[in-house]
Amino acid sequence: MVILRDYQQDLYDKIIASARKGSKRILAVAPCGAGKSYIIAKLASETGHGVLILTHRRELLEQTGALVGSSARMAMVMTEANHLGEYPTPRLIIADEAHLSRAKSWIKVLEYYGSYTIGFTATPIRLDGKPLGDVYDDIVEGVDARWLIDHQRLAPYDYYSVPVVDTENLRSRMGDFVIEDLEDLMTNRAIYSDVLRTWEDIAKNEKTIAYCVSVKHAKETAEMFRAEGYSAVELDGSTPPDERKRIMDDFRNGKFQILCNVGIISEGVSIDDVTCCLLLRPTESLALFWQQGMRCMRYLPEKRAKIIDCVANYTRNPLFDMPVEWSLNKKLTKRKLFTENGDFTLRTCPECYQVFQTAPVCPYCGHVYEPDPRELKKREEIRIEKITAEEAEKAEKVRKQMRMEVGRCRSVEDLWKVARERGYSNGWVWHMAKAKGIRM
Predict the structure, then answer these.
(1) Which end of the chain is more exposed for a tag (fewer CB within 10 A), N or C?
(2) Which domain holds residue 54?
């Protein structure tokens, strides 16, 4: 019997209520670390036979399978898509990491079976930022990351940003940067040096997951750490399954300190004692940013996570505990760069590198900073906009007063008086008299 925590039970109840009102495909939203696997396990056990749980990675399959046991059939989505028709149609499909549900293999399986489907994700948008309303017909939300942090279900975190690269001239494709451009950018020797120095300053003794751009980048990053005497291993999608499992087991057991990966530890994988995420892959995708950055926020007593953003991803996306309005139909609105006063909504302290919501001084080290030139420019734009708006408001008041004066005219003499005061022509008097029905 699966026992859920109160906030997990609340989301479970919302899912059941949505199904009872007729929803056939339900998208359930809960932050990374909220325990979605437990809710999945309860759904499987309560439904009984005929449950199919789909995931896209072996690590997720093993992790979820340990909780579910034999109460459901589990499969990797690519495998299921290649063996359609070989199994009975499930009563219920549970899709883990459902932000990937728009991929061809997922759609192939869901449309073939046509079963009731419940998708789970922390980020209910595609990697390109588009909504999932073409796959799901209802969305239900659990508590957010801020609630989980405040209630000791996620670790609090410090966010550091030391941008060592300039992404301004990178090309974008399908809502994110082009991988070839990223690899050219990130495999620069000077950048490796900056990354190493930054990590040593902030998290030298921390168990770390580094998120890299490509296989080449991950291998070279691991080599960079090893050359300085740190234990580091590279992992990517081409790593053979047995070796992949061994590497993950060794990392969990503390046999090496730094795991440099490409696209393997972005969703669902739980390693509680990881305390640092090193972001080395620039991205415009909120889904990818949150899925990667929150991997070190699993709760342990006294734990405080560290996220080191060497590529300024926070400038393109909201931080993990900021409120986000999810929708099945509207594309996610990007975070505002400036406040209504022209200050950056988030800023990086040049002394301690901490990222924080705008304040007069750094709340971590007390550093007093000068306004950025971009803030000064934005403040001037806002000042001009306010002046323009005030002038427009004054002009509209004058026009309204003038209309009221004409409206009070009851005779040709009244119209002539207004015309003389304003310097209007005789034709204006004739037109206004005709419009008001006043006899000339």
Answers:
(1) N
(2) 6-143
